[in-house]
Amino acid sequence: MNDSATLKRRWKLIVNVITVVALVVLVFAVRHQLGDTIRNFSKVNVWVLLLLIPIEWLNYHAQAKQYQGLFSVVGNKLKYRFLFESSLELNFVNSVFPSGGVSGISYFAMRMRSERDKITGGRATLVHLVKLALLLLSFEILLIFGLLCIAIGGNVSDFVILVASTISTLMLVGTFAFVMIIGHERRIQATFAFLTRLLNQVIHLVRPRHPETINMRRAREAVEELHQNYKLIEQQYHQLRGPFWWGFCANLAEVAAVYVVYIAFGHWVNPGAVILAYAVANFAGFVSVLPGGVGVYEALMTGVLVATGVPAAVSLPVTVMYRVLNMLIQLPPGYYFYHRTLHQPEAPQV
Question: Exposed e or buried b for every residue in 270-302, given b needs 16+ CB within 10 A?
Fold first, then answer.
């Protein structure tokens, strides 16, 4: 028992050290952007920028309500405040531990696990994946609206149409593939067995003495649980309308946050350009190996905005200020709740 307690304390210490190091790396990466943001404050309407706070609150309110609705579908009633705080923690983890969202999925599964509410890691993982799928599908509405706005503004180039079509297609194909795989037992078993073997082979190159780092039997059990929980949701698919529209609200809030910064700078740009740039930047930022997608996010968002007719002299400072202020609003409370969770008796491990 003492050995177990000592191991937990050591693990918490390691996670805390890694978190602090990741935060330092993130601050170092955005140090120039912080300076640019401070210098640009004299050029903007600070009262308009304050709208970012209620807009970001709406974003996390929508995410908490979306999670609440999805857990309700599988038979779990979770408190709104708990899910709101967990959403902030999840954003913090995804920002400082860049891994294409894998750290976030792992953390969410551990955070939601509860014997009292019968929430297993597999069930929490499925809820999170369905939430992501609904976010992608609901963003299609915004993307279509954005293209209409760009078309009306007369700035539709072949490049813009290609980018928008590619993003839209990837969203639909990705969601369809997810449903096709997870909805069929043999398909999901074969897919995850292949991925598990592939990961074990890759890890074996680094750790030759551990041919099966990921246990195949446990992986099969986890996949089977994932499939069973999906069937629960599939049987009550009509209850997904609420989570779908909450996902749309979350997307709308994020795009509105970017647009508010443009207004603060005194520019009423085409909203379609902002929607398309946001989609491209977030997709690239999601797979970036840098903390928060720093550098990649700003470059792509500015590039897409320029392609849709927004001058770089306008889009670059706006993008930088949006990114820095967005982090300053979200990361501190996310870190607070994350740090508090780590010091609970059964702390999640990332």
Answer: bbbbbbbbbbbbbbebeebeebbbbebbbebbb
Provide the token pair at 301. 């968002």
Between CA 107 and CA 112 the distance in angstroms is 9
More confident residue, 328 or 105: 328
Give phi and psi for 119, each to the nearest 5.
Answer: -100, 115
3-class DSSP state for residue 298? helix
User: Of 122-131, 197-206, 304-313, which has the strongest mean pLDDT?
Assistant: 122-131
* Spatial contact of 177 and 188, defined as CB atoms under 8 Å apart: no
Please check whether residue 213 lies inside any domain of the structure: yes
Question: How confident is the model over 48-69, as pLDDT tens digits?
Answer: 989 999 999 999 999 999 999 9
Q: Which two tokens stand for residue 229?
A: 């929980």
H-run or E-run covering 201: helix 185-206
- Does 138 score more than 70 pLDDT? yes
* Helix axis angle, 158-182 to 216-235, nearest 10°: 100
Report DSSP letters for 100-127, one per residue: TTHHHHHHHHHHH-BTTTTB-HHHHHHH
> How many angstroms separate the most distant Cα atoms in the chain?
70
**Please, what sign has the CA dihedral across residues 160, 163, 165, 171?**
negative
Residue 255 confidence (pLDDT): 93
Question: Can you say whether residue 52 is alpha, beta or left, with left for phi > 0 and alpha for psi between -120 and 50 degrees?
Answer: alpha
Q: Is 50 helix (H, G, I), strand (E, B) or coil?
A: coil
The answer to whether residue 349 is domain-embedded is no
Q: Is the pLDDT of residue 36 over 70?
A: no
> How many structural domains is the chain composed of?
1
Rounded to an integer, what distance in angstroms lies between the CA atom of residue 124 and that of residue 110?
A: 8
Full residue range of the structural domain in which residue 297 is found: 2-342
The residues that bridge with 119 in the sheet, in sequence order, are 114
Segment of 16-30, 221-235, 249-263, 328-342 carrying the highest mean pLDDT? 249-263
